[in-house]
Amino acid sequence: MVSWCEAQGLNIRGHNIVWDDPHFQQPWVKALASKPDELRQAVMARVNSVVSRYAGRFIAWDVSNEQLHFSFYEDALSDPSFSTSLFLDVQCLDPGAQLFVNDYNTLENANDPASIPDALLLKLHELRAAGVLNLAIGLEAHFTKPDLAYMRSTLDKLGTLGLPIWLTELDINVQALPNHNISQAAIYLEDILREAFSHPAVKGIVMWTSWEPSGCYRMCLTDNNMDNLATGNVVDALLNEWQQVDILAESYGSIKWRGPHGTHNVSIRWNNITYYSSLCVEPGKGTQRFIVELPMSSNTLEMHLSSASSSM
């Protein structure tokens, strides 16, 4: 699977190395809870095996999953710093990968004290102080009805650390909506995607929408015939909108465009000739001005782009 993804030019995240939730430990791991030396040895064998095997091939690891909510390994090993040492071990084995603190309810539920933004910030500060360098923030984002104002304020607060933020398991709980209304779920999904995409700290979005014949975990993008549901239509429309936009310049060749950070390929059609250029919208610079000279014409095309990422 890894080789296939690499052949297609797809980036890969490692999810996850260990999971701190006691309910999802294999029976043989639970049996080691009373044998801390053997448990630690088993964990290190797991880390050394999987991280070494894929070092340099994954862009990121979810290191100790959901450690804000659970503490299976810390409790069994009587070691409250276990997760920190695990991050350091992974960093040594794969120094180029981003190391995520990944948890739920920080973004989607303001009523969970275990994972409020301040609790996540405290954990990140602890890891930084211990010497973990390549940190990143993973927000699972399992929504029912989104509170967009709370979502925005949470991203603003977490963004003050300057770390990349990813929505790592985004979905809508369709089963919890009245009449399992997929159309309403699609509306919520578009609101969340636009809000996340528009925030300068958000660097990635992963959706938790795997299809299976027996039904979806919480939300799918297609039906059993692989035809789009309303949620799939939203994703396709936004991808199209965010990846390519056609703009007609004003009479004197000026274009104003609000779009995402990064490098953009530009094609300009003028007098039946197409000219190609590229430009880079950098974060933190406010409105940026680009001038594209058309070599076969005395005309100049001026481009004004906002560096504050937002839906186009």
Summary keywords:
312 residues, 7-stranded parallel sheet, 3-stranded mixed sheet, 12 strands, GH10 domain-containing protein, polysaccharide degradation
Describe the structure.
- The protein has 312 residues and is of the alpha/beta class.
- 33% of the residues lie in helices and 25% in strands.
- It contains nine helices and twelve strands.
- The protein has helices spanning 2-7, 27-31, 36-54, 72-77, 82-93, 117-129, 148-159, 182-197, 230-243; strands at residues 13-19, 60-65, 98-103, 135-139, 142-143, 165-172, 202-207, 254-258, 262-270, 273-281, 287-293, 300-306.
- The strands form three sheets. Strands 1, 2, 3, 4, 5, 6 and 7 form a seven-stranded parallel sheet that branches. The chain has a three-stranded mixed sheet with strand order 8-12-11, with no helix packed on it.
- β5 (142-143), α7 (148-159) and β6 form a beta-alpha-beta unit.
- The radius of gyration is 23 Å and the shape is globular.
- Residues 306-312 have low confidence and may be disordered.
- Residues 1-237 form the GH10 domain.
- It holds the Pfam family Glyco_hydro_10.
- Keywords: Carbohydrate metabolism, Hydrolase, Polysaccharide degradation.
